[in-house]
Amino acid sequence: MIWEKYTLGEATRAAEDMKLLQTEKGIIEISKDTLAIPIRLDDKQRGYVFHGQGKLLIDAIAETEEGAVGKSIEKELTGPFLMLGDTERIQKHFSETSEDDFEKTGYKSQQEFVDKAEDLCDRFFRGRLHSHEDFNQNHSSIFAFQNEDNKFDILIAEGFKLVYKAKGLVFVSSEGKVVLKSPVEVIVSDNGKSVIVKKGKSVFINK
User: Is the pLDDT of residue 18 over 60?
Assistant: First the structure.
């Protein structure tokens, strides 16, 4: 399936503060009045494009015998970003918009927001293939955030598993197992045992 075959629904806004994602290692939240526009695929809602005020928190830390490695990531979400996944839980928390809502977010009109959302989706979906049935059957959530290079930082959450990929960083966490990759090292931590692979050499630490 080609993800480019999407349509956008009617623009709306968050009627209250809400958490789009809350796991042991990651939280994504948006503030009241954040603009939102539904993404539809085959006449079914599959996600949203959001723009307003929000926050991303990732506990990108690996525990090793030498101590904690990595750091917590906290980012303000002030630009448009995309969410794909099960939206049923949050659909009832949106309300109608007015022209003032778009002006407060920096748009001259609702159409300008729609155009921005379409551009974001076009760039993210372009050339991407995905199995429609597989996407429906699992309970994963996918988030895409524009970075300073006009590319995307990606977060994927499914059950206990969380994957976050940003410029210079890959973080994977799943039921106590952690992989942390930076430009200088790769760390694998699993239930009290860890392997640290530094650039140019490997260090194995076990207990």
Answer: yes
Query: How much is the mean pLDDT over the chain?
Result: 87
* In-domain check, residue 13: yes
> Does a structural domain hold residue 182?
no
The answer to the question of residue 41 being in a domain is yes
- Residue 102: CB atoms within 10 A of its CB come to 21
Residues 63, 91: contact at Cβ < 8 Å?
A: no
Buried b (16+ CB within 10 A) or exposed e, 105-139: bebeebeebbebbeebbeebbeeeeeeeeebeeee
* Residue 81: per-residue pLDDT: 97
The mean pLDDT of 81-88, rounded to a whole number, is: 92
Amino acid at the residue 11: A
